[in-house]
């Protein structure tokens, strides 16, 4: 089995207003590229992993610029295919004080929107790879895109790759005729070797009421026995899955979050410390940073599930300090945060 990691999804343009303005305010938009699976790819590249990102982009200046940006950050793009007319867009209105953040999608009729099975040579794209990473978003846009996602998974399975799934349930995306998000995500879970999600996603899929996480300080007493019971229920839906992560965030205010995660591996549950993040710069892509940290940590600490979890949470915590969708943290920076016992109050903010 090779060492390369392949991620697959839709590259997007994100537009926001400066200084936490509402979308209706001001004249200037700030733009950058993002998208869950691209975020994971960049995170892995920053940690010196060999990574390929696969998508469909328009053969336009904006499509080519997106691929160039990924190249600049060390992500391979040789298996991106080109066609269609536009890059998908989302507008992100940042949270401020009592006002929550909001996302408005404009991705209909994008190049990825018209992706179909058979367009991507998955045997070539997955050659010499060890992991394929996809998410629920890859299957949420259109039925053909969902079919292409399962095509990639099935080829990867035949080639003996580890299948990494981030559930990434976004209820506002499943709009195509006949969409069945719960059934589709359950089907994806059945293929997973490694799986990520938060309590809201597992609640949606299993019907099990989410367990409250109301931490105001790092010494919050979590109901670990309840999570252990829930994990056993989740495992029944994906018996082949070796490692299952649940992420939790309590948003005390727009800029003050508490973050933690649990890991189920080999019939045992591991819990990490609760991280106090009092000065959130940008919360977008935090889960993707966890995914990227986790997939890298599987190689760093192959026999130490606790350190895998701790490293991944440190990666996710650092992402809160970095503007934009991409986690631009290196392995050395993540290790420093992990070894400093998550005291990230004085971490430098990267812009």
Overall description:
32% of the residues lie in helices and 23% in strands. The model is unreliable at 343-351 (pLDDT under 50). It is built from 10 helices and 15 strands. Strands 1, 4, 9, 10, 11, 12, 13, 14 and 15 form a 9-stranded mixed sheet that branches. Strands 3-2-7-8 form a 4-stranded mixed sheet. Helix 5 (181-189) links the parallel strand 10 (162-166) and strand 11 (194-196). With 351 residues, the chain is of the alpha/beta class.
Lay out the secondary structure.
Layout (H helix, E strand, L loop, with lengths): L3 E5 L3 E6 L11 E6 L1 H11 L4 E4 L1 E2 L3 H12 L8 E2 L5 E6 L8 E5 L15 H4 L3 E7 L7 H16 L3 E5 L14 H9 L4 E3 L2 H8 L17 H14 L5 E11 L2 E10 L2 E4 L3 E3 L8 H15 L4 H15 L11 H9 L12
Helix pairs in contact: 1-8, 8-9, 9-10
Question: Descriptors for this entry?
Answer:
351 residues; 10 helices; four-stranded mixed β-sheet; globular; 32% helix; alpha/beta; 15 strands
């Amino acid at each position: 089995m090779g060492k390369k990691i392949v991620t697959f999804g839709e590259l997007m343009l994100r537009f926001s207003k400066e200084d936490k303005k509402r979308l209706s305010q001001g004249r200037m938009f700030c733009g950058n590229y993002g998208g869950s699976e691209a975020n994971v790819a960049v995170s892995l590249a920053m940690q010196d992993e060999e990574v390929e990102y696969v998508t469909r982009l328009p053969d336009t200046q904006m499509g080519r610029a997106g691929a160039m940006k990924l190249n600049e950050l060390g992500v391979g793009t040789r298996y991106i295919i080109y066609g269609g007319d536009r890059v998908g867009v989302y507008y992100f209105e940042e949270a401020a004080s009592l006002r929550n953040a909001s996302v408005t999608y404009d991705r209909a009729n994008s190049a990825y929107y018209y992706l179909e099975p058979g367009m991507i040579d998955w045997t070539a794209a997955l050659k010499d790879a060890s992991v394929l990473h996809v998410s629920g978003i890859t299957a949420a846009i259109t039925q053909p895109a969902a079919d292409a996602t399962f095509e990639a998974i099935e080829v990867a399975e035949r080639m003996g790759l580890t299948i990494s799934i981030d559930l990434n349930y976004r209820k506002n995306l499943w709009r195509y005729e006949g969409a069945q998000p719960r059934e589709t995500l359950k089907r994806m879970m059945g293929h997973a070797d490694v799986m990520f999600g938060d309590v809201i996603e597992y609640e949606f899929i299993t019907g099990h009421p989410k367990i409250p996480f109301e931490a105001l300080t790092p010494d919050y007493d979590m109901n670990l026995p309840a999570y252990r019971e829930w994990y056993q229920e989740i495992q029944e839906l994906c018996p082949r899955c070796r490692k299952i992560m649940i992420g939790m965030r309590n948003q005390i205010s727009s800029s003050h979050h508490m973050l933690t995660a649990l890991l189920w591996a080999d019939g045992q549950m591991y819990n990490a410390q609760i991280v106090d993040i009092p000065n959130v710069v940008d919360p977008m892509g935090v889960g993707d940073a966890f995914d990227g940290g986790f997939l890298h940590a599987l190689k760093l600490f192959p026999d130490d599930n606790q350190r895998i979890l701790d490293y991944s949470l440190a990666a996710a915590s650092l992402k809160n300090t970095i503007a934009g969708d991409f986690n631009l943290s290196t392995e050395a920076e993540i290790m420093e945060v992990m070894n400093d016992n998550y005291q990230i109050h004085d971490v430098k903010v990267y812009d």
